[in-house]
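Hi R.,

As promised on Friday, here is the backbone we talked about, encoded as structure tokens. Could you run it through your design pipeline when you get a chance and send me back a sequence?
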């Protein structure tokens, strides 16, 4: 028990870094994903094709490779040549990557709405923006909660990838203690922390699904 109390400090510090990456990614990637989805389903074919290519690129390459590219290779790209510290580089990579996944979730939700509702809104004199804001998006939110839940829980676990940038997240803190003390106990505690975070998210999304399901009755 004394040893467990001793290692809790560094592990909690690592958990704080993990939560920062998770929360910033979630706060930035969800609205970006929604914006990309709206462009993706719009009538502007060139913009839609560009967004489609972006989504294909982000979903078709590993997140770890994207992080390494932004951190190590971006400074050598002509014209851009930006060198980002480890934390901003990780945030940029995570946001760009997860925005692509959230965009596809939003797109599927938007396209699941019956075309008749768009036509009815047009008859009522609503603009495209009003139709999306007042009619389509409220229904989309209810329909995409399950895939959003899965993707968000995956995000918690993917935060462990920032280990490659030598950031002191939960996994790196645990491994440092393991290498120092030659015991796997820190890995067990780290696993418990990850399970606790995913459990909280599961409960939260389950509550949201039940709350929105009320309107189906």
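Update: got your reply. Pasting your designed sequence below so it's all in one thread:
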């Amino acid at each position: 028990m004394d040893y467990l109390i001793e290692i809790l400090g560094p592990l909690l510090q690592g958990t704080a870094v993990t939560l920062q990456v998770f929360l910033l990614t979630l706060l930035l990637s969800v609205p970006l994903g929604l914006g990309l989805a709206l462009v993706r389903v719009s009538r502007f074919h060139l913009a839609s094709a560009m967004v489609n290519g972006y989504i294909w690129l982000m979903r078709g390459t590993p997140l770890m490779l994207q992080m390494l590219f932004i951190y190590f290779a971006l400074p050598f790209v002509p014209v851009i040549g930006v060198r980002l510290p480890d934390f901003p580089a990780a945030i940029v990579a995570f946001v760009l990557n997860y925005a692509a996944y959230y965009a596809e979730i939003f797109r599927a939700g938007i396209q699941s709405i019956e075309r008749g509702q768009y036509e009815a809104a047009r008859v009522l004199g609503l603009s495209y923006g009003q139709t999306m804001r007042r009619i389509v998006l409220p229904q989309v939110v209810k329909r995409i909660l399950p895939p959003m839940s899965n993707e968000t829980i995956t995000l918690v676990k993917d935060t462990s990838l920032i280990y490659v940038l030598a950031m002191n997240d939960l996994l790196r803190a645990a491994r440092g203690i393991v290498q120092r003390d030659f015991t796997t106990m820190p890995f067990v505690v780290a696993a418990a922390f990850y399970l606790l975070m995913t459990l909280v998210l599961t409960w939260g999304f389950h509550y949201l699904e039940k709350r929105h399901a009320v309107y189906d009755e």
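One thing I noticed while checking it: The chain has a mean pLDDT of 89.

Thanks again,
M.
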